[in-house]
Amino acid sequence: xxxxxxxxxxxxxxxxxxxxxxxxxxxxxxxxxxxxxxxxxxxxxxxxxxxxxxxxxxxxxxxxxxxxxxxxxxxxxxxxxxxxxxxxxxxxxxxxxxxxxxxxxxxxxxxxxxxxxxxxxxxxxxxxxxxxxxxxxxxxxxxxxxxxxxxxxxxxxxxxxxxxxxxxxxxxxxxxxxxxxxxxxxxxxxxxxxxxxxxxxxxxxxxxxxxxxxxxxxxxxxxxxxxxxxxxxxxxxxxxxxxxxxxxxxxxxxxxxxxxxxxxxxxxxxxxxxxxxxxxxxxxxxxxxxxxxxxxxxxxxxxxxxxxxxxxxxxxxxxxxxxxxxxxxxxxxxxxxxxxxxxxxxxxxxxxxxxxxxxxxxxxxxxxxxxxxxxxxxxxxxxxxxxxxxxxxxxxxxxxxxxxxxxxxxxxxxxxxxxxxxxxxxxxxxxxxxxxxxxxxxxxxxxxxxxxxxxxxxxxxxxxxxxxxxxx
Length: 472
What we know:
single chain; 472 residues; seven-stranded mixed beta sheet; five-stranded parallel beta sheet
């Protein structure tokens, strides 16, 4: 018998893998429904379906776990995953077509992406597999040596190497890194920027038709088909109260440390550094956003970032505890491609910004600043708004305690000790010092994103240990 704590996507992926191997699995979830950060709800008006957290799924499309699961999900995959807008009404797009993208951003981008595509299988397994990724690195061969120097670069430096002094193309790259909490001047931000834009060519930035909830529903259905069980509204208060051969905790360190005896796990988890908070806005609109840029009107995601210094300034202000004066925004336009999410002729809009965990402004003040930012790039936006939903960092944590302070990654990616060996050398391979207790989640190697690999890898470790015990 294995108990999984948390019915987010990592917990469900792990449970499906265990149940498919014949293990008796029960998933316990404190919330009233499964899904964690992969859920949808009618947040504004009847007939409008909004993704409450994750809205686009390039990592899911690339994930070895989800590829192996082959879930019955109807994916929408726009040809123009992203447009980065500028105040003069222009934009630079990320298209699934590499040649069309390179025609705008330049030949160095084409050459780099082609190199990455040539080794895509071992590259993805090196990034998302178990630690240490020895076999994929061996398969990469000399390419591992040639590509390794790119990994620690700030996105601003990587942008200069690729695009010279062209600030606009550098901003196009850095805007994707702003999905995480790492400013473009910090080491590691380049890998996130490069990775997301590369995936745009490799697999797109798809999303489930009808809402992200479709992905969670497919996982729950598969688990039940294998005989597993999900029980919601069940709050675990102690690991010791669970009678199981193994327990997998996918909740964040803030939650986990309340469930185990004092001193049982590395002390670093009590000092775990949570990253920037998130302000999430959802809108019901009477029509599409009137972007100045025609490219933005045809993009799944719009990065409202402007030039590179505005991207850097927004994240730097947030890290200092100030609500950004010009917040960088990730704007999702699902209903341009999926009319099932809103009444006929009307639209949803998905918007989030990285902000301090304690922003120091009221909900309405924050929303007004975001809307003023959108108006700079889409004059008349406010006139399209029928209703809006505001979720502050505190409200995001209230709904999902693993996202402490509204940190979507369940742990900052800025401190190097939290980026490497995540979360700790003794835990990055999913086992803990407590016999029978395992960990997974976005705070565990290989890290955040809806790829399910912490859960998938943890399930493999549990299966290995259970088989070892049965032989002894």
